[in-house]
Structure to design on (536 residues):
């Protein structure tokens, strides 16, 4: 493919702005801050507290070096740490100071940090249009809510994965918007089903406006752990371009993209690589294929540094960042000065190469955790390749789990396992599908005519797991809201009413927090409950 000498600029997408976004105007108070920066200016205008009255004389933070081995949870000794110091007043022009970072500031965010992130985005993600911009925000949950207020009108439809993060629905459900689930497979959201939904829209929803926004987590999706291949991502983007859909790419797990998994009796310890090798093997962002500026990427430091920082950034075209800026000026004003100062100092100290090395080591740590949990499942169940042993079981992909003691030689291709999972290609979660027809209690619920036997059984199973002192997240939490919802009167649709798959249920297993002993014991407790409920 021939690479153009100059990248194109974003096209005009102003028709996507909702009435609120179109009518926002610049805060006049923020203009004053811009004039105050002029040399020799005496300001008697802004109501800014005098920095001499801030009680902070300086700040220092001890941090890891970027090449710290993170896989085994050992805090490096003080002699192997670095100290970041932020003085009260800047020692030189352009240096960080608490006087500046603790003050009211431009709502775009700390300029030094935005410049660093712009260069990082350019060098690592390679956007396919020239004039992308960076706008800091307070984390992806708040950022997505701002995008909803930018693009969605009351009663609109939102395209999203058939299993999606519950908090992603929170901003638009109260506005009377409805989700449109798009089917998934082992590579995440399916481009062919997205095209089907959009092509058939007028027939299926006569008189209703076609969805104009896709919300997706393309790497290490929550809850499924799937990651789009480059080919899949190009296909999804092409569908969105043809149907004029804005892509909101939520990317908290992009750096936590793992290498392929194989079933092993003991967890494989990932081999570390350089930051540059890590960069070369990162999966692409939608930005790489976006020549029009129709992708809004949500980046966050919650998974790469710490969630308490409440700091992240938009990557978007100038029209969208300007409208988001107008909202930020009157809603949140700016992210925390502490967070911006510390993160900016950290990234400038580490440098781009250092940050990439940190991300590489961080990826190794979570990949090892994934391997530990998958190996624990292989110990407690008979774990076999689904393609080889369960090829005739609908929906069974990746690894099939059979009761302990099952002889693989006796398994027939249509023999239904207890459960199955696709080893996560990134993120923090394992999404396990349970086949309920093997459980006597589920068959009783079906025979009794229960209106939702799948949910009833999975609720009972969750309680049994909690009684056995192991907590999982019910899969029902991740089902999109597809109808107008009134919290006071609405009843959630049953599995059959929402078109859910019959005779199966899901749990999300998190491998992000527990140590090896806790994960192995937790999976043992899960197997104890499963063996009782399935009666083997």
């Amino acid at each position: 493919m021939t690479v153009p000498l100059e990248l194109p600029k974003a096209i005009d997408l102003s028709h996507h702005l909702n009435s609120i976004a179109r009518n926002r105007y610049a805060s006049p108070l923020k203009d004053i801050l811009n004039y105050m920066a002029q040399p020799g200016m005496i300001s008697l205008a802004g109501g800014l507290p005098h920095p001499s009255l801030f009680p902070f004389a300086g700040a220092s933070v001890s941090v890891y070096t970027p090449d710290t081995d993170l896989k085994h949870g050992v805090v490096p000794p003080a002699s192997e740490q670095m100290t970041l110091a932020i003085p009260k007043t800047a020692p030189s022009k352009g240096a960080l100071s608490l006087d500046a970072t603790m003050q009211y500031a431009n709502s775009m965010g700390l300029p030094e940090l935005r410049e660093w992130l712009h260069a990082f985005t350019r060098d690592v993600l390679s956007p396919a249009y020239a004039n992308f911009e960076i706008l800091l925000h307070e984390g992806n949950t708040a950022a997505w809510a701002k995008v909803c207020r930018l693009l969605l009108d009351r009663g609109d439809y939102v395209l999203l994965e058939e299993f999606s993060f519950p908090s992603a629905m929170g901003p638009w459900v109260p506005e009377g918007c409805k989700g449109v689930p798009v089917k998934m497979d082992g590579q995440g959201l399916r481009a062919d089903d997205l095209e089907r939904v959009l092509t058939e829209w007028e027939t299926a929803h006569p008189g209703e406006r076609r969805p104009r926004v896709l919300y997706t987590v393309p790497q290490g999706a929550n809850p499924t752990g799937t990651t789009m291949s480059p080919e899949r991502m190009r296909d999804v983007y092409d569908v969105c371009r043809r149907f004029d859909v804005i892509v909101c790419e939520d990317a908290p797990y992009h750096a936590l993209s793992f290498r392929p998994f194989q079933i092993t009796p003991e967890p494989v310890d990932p081999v570390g690589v350089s930051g540059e090798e890590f960069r070369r093997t990162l999966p692409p962002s939608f930005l790489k294929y976006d020549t029009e500026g129709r992708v809004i990427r949500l980046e966050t430091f919650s998974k790469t540094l710490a969630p308490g920082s409440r700091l992240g950034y938009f990557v978007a075209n100038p029209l969208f960042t300007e409208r988001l800026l107008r909202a930020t000026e009157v809603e949140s004003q700016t992210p925390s000065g502490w967070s911006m100062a510390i993160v900016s100092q950290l990234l400038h100290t580490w440098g781009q190469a250092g940050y990439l090395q940190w991300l590489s080591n961080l990826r190794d740590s979570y990949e090892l955790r994934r391997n530990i949990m998958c190996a624990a499942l292989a110990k407690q169940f008979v774990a076999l390749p689904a393609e080889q042993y369960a090829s005739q079981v609908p929906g069974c992909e990746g690894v099939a789990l059979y009761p302990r003691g099952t002889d693989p030689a006796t398994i027939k291709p249509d023999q239904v396992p207890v459960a199955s999972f696709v080893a996560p290609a990134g993120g923090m979660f394992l999404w396990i599908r349970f086949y309920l027809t093997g459980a006597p209690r589920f068959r009783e619920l079906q025979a009794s005519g229960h209106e939702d036997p799948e949910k009833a059984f999975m609720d009972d199973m969750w309680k049994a797991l909690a009684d056995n002192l192991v907590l999982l997240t019910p899969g029902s939490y991740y089902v999109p809201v597809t109808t107008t919802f009134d919290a006071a009167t609405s009843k959630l649709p049953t599995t059959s009413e929402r078109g859910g798959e019959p005779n199966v249920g899901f749990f999300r297993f998190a491998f992000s927090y527990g140590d090896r002993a806790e994960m192995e014991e937790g999976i043992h407790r899960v197997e104890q409950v499963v063996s009782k409920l399935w009666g083997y």
Summary: The chain has a mean pLDDT of 94.
